[in-house]
Amino acid sequence: MSQYFTDVWQGLSSTFKGLGIVMSHLLTKKVTRQYPNPEDRYELPERARNRLYVNMDDCIGCDQCARACPVNCIIIDTAKAVTGENLGITSNGKKKSLWVTRFDIDIAKCCYCGLCTFPCPTECIRMTDVFEFSEYDRVELIYNYATMDSNEGALHEAAAKKADEEAAVLRAKQAAEKAAQAAANPTPPPSDTPTPPPAAAPGGVKPPPFAAGGVKPPPFAAKPGGLKPPPFKAGGNA
Q1: What are phi and psi of 180, to 5 degrees?
Q2: How far is CA 165 from the centre of its chain?
Q3: Residue 83 belongs to what H/E stretch?
Q4: How far apart are the first and last CA of the chain?
Q5: Angle at the Cα of 29 (from 28 to 33), degrees rounded to 5?
Q6: Residues 6 or more apart from 216 whose CB is under 8 A from it?
Q7: What's the pLDDT tens digit per position in 73-83?
Q8: Which one is predicted more confidently, 193 or 37?
Q9: Which ranges constitute the DSSP H helices of the chain?
Q10: How far is CA 132 from the centre of its chain?
């Protein structure tokens, strides 16, 4: 019988203990955030890596970000500027020389590594804190950052191709003119006959003058009857 009342007491005490914990939390400030509500969202850190953003005004079409991407989610197409065409400069003073006709990022492939942001010379591509970009269709996850439409890009590509063809024709014409000039004024081939040495002057070859540091000739000249003996030296034998 005592065991029965003991079990009842333990059940009631544990129930009231749990209710006490619940009542204490009812009087405290709420910590649950309502995610869809913009006012209840967490502030992400400054260096958060989420959705990519590209400032096309600073893009020079160098393709370094696409080469650095480990999953090949960046595709860039460019067209050369025609001679005399001014494309403007970037915010850091770098002159543009290419039209960026296509700049697509497939965010569904992106692994958020941030490797594409480091080699960019103009810092036009960067990671943002935007993480809400789910779509119903996968095609909607391919972001097109190029500011020109397909027709304008095709026009720039055609102009660049035409300029390359004209430059190739001009180089071929210059090469042909150079070859014609060379044929009109042929250069005589070098002769294989060795050049003979210059003839000796009449009277024989003049001996070279005495050079400093050389061997000085003896002070006496040979006379008939033999050589002149050297003079007597002090301290020597008589």
Answers
A1: -65, -40
A2: 28
A3: none
A4: 157
A5: 135
A6: 210
A7: 999 988 887 77
A8: 37
A9: 2-26, 64-68, 150-184
A10: 33
Asked if 97 contacts 80 with a C-beta cutoff of 8 angstroms, the reply is: yes
Give the distance between the most distant pair of CA atoms in the chain: 166
Are 100 and 65 in contact by the 8 Å Cβ rule? The answer is no
- DSSP notation for 172-198: HHHHHHHHHHHHHSPPPPPP-SPPPPP
Q: What is the mean pLDDT of residues 60-74?
A: 93
Q: Which residues of 76-97 are buried (b: 16+ CB within 10 A; e: fewer)?
A: bbbbbbeeeeeeeebeeeeebe
Instruction: Tell me the two tokens of residue 228.
Output: 């002149």
Phi, psi angle pair for 200, to nearest 5°: -70, 145
Work out the pLDDT band at 112, boundaries 50, 70, 90. very high
Residue 161, SS3 per DSSP: helix
Q: What's the token pair of residue 27?
A: 């009087």
